[in-house]
């Protein structure tokens, strides 16, 4: 099938590349000529395992095209995916200007039936707005062409996006049109052969499903983070509690890992946007607001622990920081806990020596001018001359470091672990003081003790 994707960001590029890989003829359109130029040469702007090879393979096979020409893009596919950004505006609501601009372009250039698919995470009611914007352009042209607007939210995880797309848990499609349903079945046929993963529903339910899924996952994390703070104050160990509650299949082991807060492009943005949507229909989403507030506070927990350890005086201290990305296997720094930590450390007069396996370039882009930051080529270099070590991201290479090296390099033998990577006894054996999240009485942070 001929498919057009608007937006070559994270979602658009993965969708385009994976659909091309199963045999569709895909054209990805973006307004950024530099980006398109690079993509045509197989250079991708993000770090995502497996994506580069599948892009270059399908570009060479002629199934994956890139363009900056809107008219060509609209002409190409009967199916038109909208996968452009929906950044939060000042009050946290999703900004729909890019989505609606694409809808208008489709209305301006289409010459026959199109299925317009909302792939971007958009507030409930957006499909109606997309249809309205498109219809208005057709009216201006005096055309009465037929189209359907479908909601087909994406559930891929950064770092595992290609695998998630190729083997989805579910493919949600919101539509009231049988014709569109048939076309979407064909688009996803290669991913749906062994057992039916497609769930059809009305458009608004599909739009809400995406927010509800992300909000539920964020709630699980904030819940665990709250219990971890309680565990510290009660002298309990959250890791035992986690295993204890996860064994109940109704709760499950997934997404109950406590830590220094969730980040990324989805959870923080989507929880806020859903809460704003609620407010717009005169409903106060108290649970969502609490999920957000707990997470904001959790991002400060590591700083509070470090500050408390040094008696509230971090002036002139050097902190080694392992892990900058919001989670492993990505270079994404959006809403990363490391940012809150670094910014608090700088404010308190400390320096940071940081290392991340993939996010160094991105950190340089964001904080390149910051005098309190030194980016280091290895995790060992980051330790040199540092007073303490803090870990913000659970990259594999941090799982079993040489504790002797850490203990010798640091002027204070202390490790603050925001992801509960180690067993406390392991570090104690090497003479290291260990502070993690929610692990017993010695873990109090400044504002808790
Ligand atoms: C998420 C959803 O998982 C995905 O379905 C949706 O499409 C987009 O948002 P992503 O943002 O890529 O994906 O990351 P995810 O792996 O879900 O992690 C989000 C954040 O939660 C990370 O900062 C991670 O460190 C944190 N997290 C996750 C925890 O703190 N504890 C957990 O138990 C799980």
From TrEMBL:
InterPro entries membership: 6-PGluconate_DH-like_C_sf, NAD(P)-bd_dom_sf, UDP-Glc/GDP-Man, UDP-Glc/GDP-Man_DH_C, UDP-Glc/GDP-Man_DH_C_sf, UDP-Glc/GDP-Man_DH_dimer, UDP-Glc/GDP-Man_DH_N, UDPglc_DH_bac
Reactions it catalyzes: UDP-alpha-D-glucose + 2 NAD(+) + H2O = UDP-alpha-D-glucuronate + 2 NADH + 3 H(+)
Annotated pathway: Nucleotide-sugar biosynthesis; UDP-alpha-D-glucuronate biosynthesis; UDP-alpha-D-glucuronate from UDP-alpha-D-glucose: step 1/1
UniProt keyword annotations, A-Z: NAD, Oxidoreductase
Domain UDP-glucose/GDP-mannose dehydrogenase C-terminal, residue spans: 320-424
SMART domains reported for this sequence: UDPG_MGDP_dh_C (SM00984)
Keyword Oxidoreductase assigned: yes
Keyword Oxidoreductase part of the UniProt annotation: yes
EC number: 1.1.1.22
Pfam families recorded: UDPG_MGDP_dh, UDPG_MGDP_dh_C, UDPG_MGDP_dh_N
Primary enzyme class: oxidoreductase
Family the UniProt entry places it in: Belongs to the UDP-glucose/GDP-mannose dehydrogenase family.
NCBIfam families: NDP-sugDHase
PANTHER family on file: UDP-GLUCOSE 6-DEHYDROGENASE TUAD
The name this protein goes by in its record: UDP-glucose 6-dehydrogenase
Species classification: Bacteria, Pseudomonadati, Pseudomonadota, Gammaproteobacteria, Pseudomonadales
């Amino acid at each position: 099938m001929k498919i057009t994707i608007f937006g070559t960001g994270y979602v658009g590029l993965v969708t385009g590349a994976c659909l091309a890989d199963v045999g569709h003829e895909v054209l990805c359109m973006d307004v950024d000529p530099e980006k398109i130029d690079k993509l045509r040469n197989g250079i991708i702007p993000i770090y995502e395992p497996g994506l580069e090879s599948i892009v270059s393979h399908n570009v060479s096979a002629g199934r994956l095209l890139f363009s900056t020409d809107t008219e060509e893009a609209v002409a190409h596919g009967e199916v038109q995916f909208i996968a452009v950004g929906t950044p939060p505006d000042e009050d946290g609501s999703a900004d729909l200007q890019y989505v609606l601009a694409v809808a208008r372009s489709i209305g301006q250039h289409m010459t026959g039936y199109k299925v317009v698919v909302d792939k971007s995470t958009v507030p409930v009611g957006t499909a109606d707005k997309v249809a309205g914007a498109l219809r208005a352009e057709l009216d201006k042209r005096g055309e009465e062409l037929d189209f359907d607007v479908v909601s087909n939210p994406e559930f891929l995880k950064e770092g595992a996006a290609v695998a998630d797309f190729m083997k989805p848990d579910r493919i949600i499609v919101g539509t009231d049109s049988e014709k569109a349903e048939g076309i979407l079945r064909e688009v996803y046929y290669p991913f749906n052969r062994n057992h039916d993963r497609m769930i059809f529903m009305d458009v608004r339910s599909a739009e809400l499903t995406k927010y509800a899924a992300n909000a539920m996952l964020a709630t699980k994390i904030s819940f665990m983070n709250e219990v971890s703070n309680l565990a510290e104050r009660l002298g309990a160990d959250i890791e035992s509690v986690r295993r204890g509650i996860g064994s109940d299949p109704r709760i499950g082991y997934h997404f109950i890992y406590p830590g220094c807060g969730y980040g990324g492009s989805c959870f923080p943005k989507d929880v806020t946007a859903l809460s704003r949507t609620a407010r717009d229909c005169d409903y106060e989403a108290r649970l969502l607001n609490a999920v957000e507030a707990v997470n904001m506070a959790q991002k400060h927990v590591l700083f509070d622990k470090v500050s408390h350890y040094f008696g509230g005086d971090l002036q002139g201290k050097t902190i080694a920081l392992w892990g900058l990305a919001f989670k492993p296997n990505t270079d994404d720094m959006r809403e990363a806990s490391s940012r809150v930590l670094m910014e608090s450390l700088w404010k308190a007069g400390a320096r940071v020596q940081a290392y991340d396996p993939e996010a160094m370039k991105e950190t340089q882009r964001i904080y390149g001018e910051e005098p309190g930051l030194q980016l280091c080529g290895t995790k060992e270099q980051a330790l040199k001359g540092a007073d303490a070590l803090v870990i913000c991201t659970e990259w594999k290479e941090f799982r079993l470091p040489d504790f002797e090296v850490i203990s010798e390099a640091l002027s204070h033998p202390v490790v603050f672990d925001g992801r509960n990577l180690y067993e406390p006894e392991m570090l104690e054996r090497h003479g290291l003081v260990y502070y993690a999240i929610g692990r017993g009485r010695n873990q109090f942070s400044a504002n808790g003790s």
